[in-house]
Amino acid sequence: MNKPLILVVEDDAPVRNLITTTLKAHDYRFQTAAAGEAGVLTTASQNPDIILLDLGLPDMDGIEVIQRIRSWSNVPIIVISARSEDSDKIDALDAGADDYLTKPFSVEELLARLRVTQRRLAAMNGDMTGRESVFTNGKLRIDYGAGCAYLGDKELHLTPIEYKLLCLMAQNVGKVLTHTYITQKVWGSSWDNDIASLRVFMATLRKKLESEPDSPQYIQTHIGVGYRMMKVE
């Protein structure tokens, strides 16, 4: 199977060269763009499998790039940015990013994120053997075959990581899953950055899942430990 085509949208030449050298060393196919507009046009013309996107681009903010691409494509977008505040991550995720990697980053962490994204793509393309086809819990319904989740009659518009988190919680209803367990399952690692990202993703997932996030019905936080999906009658 061919490695996925990865589009690197990064204006900082040393960072761009580090990423592309890493991709080349691991036999990934890649293309580059040094500005947001070029990134959008390359996405439209080359149909990459994964996008690695910097937010601080010379012609437009990366958030706008995400929004423009999301208007017609669900290609996985991994943000790689020096912006490390939770608010920056939430803005990117709300715009439609699938993952967020903070600079400076290690080559090993970048490769791990790519592997996880590849596995997630394979799973969402129907590799769901060994599971019941539909999960229900109260008004929540997950159609594993279709890769979709619903709350009542309304489809939840989830990013791939939000969907994977929701599925992981659903497969362990009533169990407290530790931060380490979740990050290992979702990212394949337990770096501090992963646990920080987990908090952000859980916050965005709750906004979509819970009618009252301050009084959660489905996902309960166990402070300092992890999260648990509660059984809803």
UniProtKB/TrEMBL annotation:
Keyword terms of this UniProt record:
DNA-binding, Phosphoprotein, Transcription, Transcription regulation
Question: Which parts of the sequence carry 4-aspartylphosphate?
Answer: 54
- Alphabetical list of Pfam families matching this protein: Response_reg, Trans_reg_C
**PROSITE patterns, from UniProt?**
OMPR_PHOB, RESPONSE_REGULATORY
SUPFAM superfamilies on file? CheY-like
Locate the OmpR/PhoB-type domain: which residues? 132-231
Q: Which residues form the Response regulatory domain?
A: 5-118
Q: Which positions make up the DNA-binding region?
A: 132-231
Where does this protein have coiled-coil stretches? Answer: none
Q: Does the keyword Cytoplasm apply?
A: no
The record describes the protein's role as: May play the central regulatory role in sporulation. It may be an element of the effector pathway responsible for the activation of sporulation genes in response to nutritional stress. Spo0A may act in concert with spo0H (a sigma factor) to control the expression of some genes that are critical to the sporulation process.
Q: Which PANTHER family match?
A: KDP OPERON TRANSCRIPTIONAL REGULATORY PROTEIN KDPE, REGULATOR OF RPOS
Question: Could you identify this protein by its name?
Answer: Stage 0 sporulation protein A homolog
Q: Which organism is it from?
A: Enterocloster alcoholdehydrogenati
Q: What is the lineage of its organism?
A: Bacteria, Bacillati, Bacillota, Clostridia, Lachnospirales
